[in-house]
Amino acid sequence: MAQVTVTVDGMKRDDDVEPRTLLVDYLRETVGRTGTVVGCDTSNCGACTVLLDGESIKSCSVLAVQADGREVETVAGLAEPDGSLHPVQQAFHEHHGLQCGYCTPGMLMRSVCLVRENPDPTEDEVREGIKGNMCRCTGYQGIVAAVMDYAATARTEEAGR
Ligand code: FES
Ligand code: FES
Residue 85 contacts by C-beta under 8 Å, 6 or more apart in sequence? Predict the structure, then answer.
């Protein structure tokens, strides 16, 4: 066993993990962040995407011990404590960017990272930015529209600060 200290969605915690435990399994089974899901387990689909120190990563391709001393943001930390949706969730809702929703946790986290890195993306840049996240349901049109709308909302919020 190895001990890790990880801040997950703003809460710092110490846990014992097997050195071979994947970050996604640690998040789901030890931390209880079951909103982060496994789609493929082979780092292809992006369903397991979380932010590690602000960078989007596929948590099925990272070991829990690699998150030691670092900060993880998951989909469970997006909404406000009172249940109000994060602007990225609101945009996906309004643009029908989800159907079965399996890809959605990872797609949301990737979108947050994408817009932080590029606050005013073109549609092509959004498509390029989410290419590591697969959706079998929506045809991507609604997702791309949602990310563009979210970026616009984030810019407006930033301008109002
Ligand atoms: S479960 Fe990690 S990329 Fe598919
Ligand atoms: S909504 Fe079903 S895989 Fe994307």
Answer: 78, 79, 93
CATH superfamily of 87-159: [2Fe-2S]-binding domain (1.10.150.120)
Residue ranges of E strands in 37-155: 49-52, 55-58, 71-73
Q: Is the CB of 136 under 6 A from ligand 2?
A: yes
Residue nearest to atom 3 of ligand 2 (CA): 135
pLDDT in tens, 68-119: 999 999 999 999 999 999 999 999 999 999 999 899 999 999 999 999 999 9
pTM, rounded to two decimals: 0.96
User: Quick check: CB of 45 below 6 Å from ligand 1?
Assistant: yes
DSSP structural state of residue 63: B
d(CA 60, CA 50): 10
Q: How far is the CA of 8 from the centre of ligand 1 (A)?
A: 19
Tokens of residue 65, six digits: 């011990």
